[in-house]
Amino acid sequence: MKEVSFDFEGLSVYQKALDFIDEVYKQTESFPK
């Protein structure tokens, strides 16, 4: 099956947003549910 790719996925701001999301998850994983 062919993987779908979008033009915005190559943008640096998109990549930085993904990195930011990962960091937020790491920082908040110890928070109470």
Automatic annotation (TrEMBL):
Protein name (Swiss-Prot/TrEMBL): Uncharacterized protein
Entry-linked SUPFAM superfamilies: IVS-encoded protein-like
Species: Leeuwenhoekiella blandensis (strain CECT 7118 / CCUG 51940 / KCTC 22103 / MED217) (Flavobacterium sp. (strain MED217))
Gene3D superfamilies: 23S rRNA-intervening sequence
Domain of life: Bacteria
